[in-house]
Prior knowledge:
- There is one protein chain.
- By secondary structure, the chain is mainly alpha-helical.
- It is 55% helix and 9% strand.
- It has helices at 7-13, 17-20, 30-44, 56-66; strands spanning 2-4, 48-50.
- Strands 1-2 form a two-stranded parallel sheet.
- The radius of gyration is 13 Å and the shape is globular.
- The mean pLDDT is 91.
Amino acid sequence: IYLEAPLAVLGERLDNLATRRVARPPGQSLEQLFAERTLLYQRYAELTISADQASADIVVQSIIERL
């Protein structure tokens, strides 16, 4: 399941990559990480849910409905 959100939204949610312990090579920016992973998530996800505007409860409900 790919929870899709634009880079701007992820930037707000991940205000400090170092303290969030996001797996990435040293020095890789959020923009570079986003570009790399988005292609993979889009390619391999069996289900894509828009998670940019919705609350966590709405996202979970969307997942349940589509499974």
